[in-house]
Specification:
With 101 residues, the chain is of the alpha+beta class. Helices cover 42% and strands 21% of the residues. The protein is built from five helices and three strands; from the N terminus they run ββαβαααα. A hairpin with a 5-residue loop joins strand 1 and strand 2.
Length: 101
């Protein structure tokens, strides 16, 4: 069974990068070696793996990758820290529920 990973990296400039791969170790080596000069992480090395999740269905992994790429920095940090309460608060639709007090 082939596995797929969605991962979140912290870059040298303190930005975050979200990606998907079927070989996490190899992909991390590629990011840190600068294998792809046009990659977002090329000038932001070294990068550090902060979070990853494994999947057997590539479509589910791809959907999550796309979702995480649209997340705010605060939500990504809450995910890394496994702060589920904060992540839930940051995910609320404030136009529907109003801002927390």
């Amino acid at each position: 069974m082939k596995l797929y990973y969605v991962y979140l990296l912290n870059c040298k400039d303190d930005s975050y990068y979200v990606g998907m791969t079927s070989n996490l170790e190899e992909r991390l080596l590629q990011h840190n070696s600068g294998k792809f000069q046009d990659a977002y992480t090329f000038n932001r090395r070294p990068v550090k793996l902060m979070w990853a999740q494994q999947f057997t269905d590539p479509n589910i992994a791809l959907d999550l990758e796309k979702k995480l790429k649209g997340w705010s920095r605060k939500k990504k940090i809450a995910l890394i820290l496994k702060d589920w309460e904060k992540l839930q608060k940051l995910s609320k639709n404030y136009s529907q529920f109003g801002k927390p007090e």
